[in-house]
Design goal:
It is built from 2 helices and 11 strands; from the N terminus they run βββββαββββββα. By secondary structure, it is mainly beta. The chain has a single domain, classed as OB fold (Dihydrolipoamide Acetyltransferase, E2P). The radius of gyration is 17 Å and the shape is globular.
C-alpha cells in the first residue's frame, strides 16, 4: 500500500507570503503579490511625499514604489543588499495604477496558514496602515490595510 505525498489544500488554509521589512514582517495572501523582483534602479516621480520612492518599469508598466515603513510613520530602512520589490496587485480596479510595489528587505517566504493557527495579538507601534498584528507558528507579522495603502497612493501619484 503506497501513501500519497501530495499536499491537499484544506478550505480554511490560505497560502501567504511573509514579507520582511526593516523590523517586522508583513503577511499578505499569496494571490495579492504578482511577483518578487530584484532591487533595480528607481525612476523619479513628481510626488511630493517621501514614502513614494520612485517608480519601476515592470513588464512594460510603470509601477510606483512605496516604502511601507515611511508610509506607516516609521523611519526609512537602511540600504540593504538583499532588498527587493514586491509587486502588488491593486485591490481596486484602477486603470491608472493596476500594480504598485513595496520595498522589502529580504526574500519573502511562502507560508501555509490555517485559520485556527493564527492569533491576533496586542502590538505596540502599529501604524495607520496596519490592520492587525498576528502570530502563527512562532512568527509575528502585521496585516496591512491594502485598500488604504492603495487609495492613499492613488491620491499622491
Amino acid at each position: 500500500m503506497s501513501q500519497s505525498l501530495t499536499k491537499t489544500n484544506t478550505p480554511d488554509q490560505v497560502d501567504c507570503l511573509l514579507i520582511p521589512l526593516k523590523d517586522r514582517n508583513l503577511l499578505l495572501p499569496n494571490v495579492t503579490v504578482a511577483e518578487i523582483i530584484p532591487f533595480s534602479h528607481l525612476l523619479t516621480t513628481t510626488s511630493a511625499v517621501d514614502w513614494i520612492l520612485g517608480r519601476i518599469d515592470w513588464r512594460g508598466t510603470p509601477v510606483p514604489v512605496v516604502c511601507y515603513e515611511m508610509l506607516n510613520d516609521q523611519s526609512a530602512p537602511a540600504p540593504n543588499p538583499n532588498a527587493r520589490f514586491a509587486v502588488v496587485n491593486g485591490v481596486g480596479n484602477h486603470s491608472a495604477m493596476p500594480f504598485y510595489a513595496v520595498l522589502v528587505q529580504g526574500i519573502p517566504r511562502l507560508v501555509h496558514i490555517q485559520e485556527k493557527d493564527i492569533q491576533e495579538v496586542e502590538a505596540m507601534n502599529m501604524g495607520p496602515y496596519d490592520v492587525s498584528a498576528v502570530t502563527f507558528d512562532n512568527e509575528t507579522a502585521m496585516i496591512p490595510d491594502l485598500d488604504n495603502v492603495e487609495s492613499t497612493l492613488l491620491n499622491h501619484i
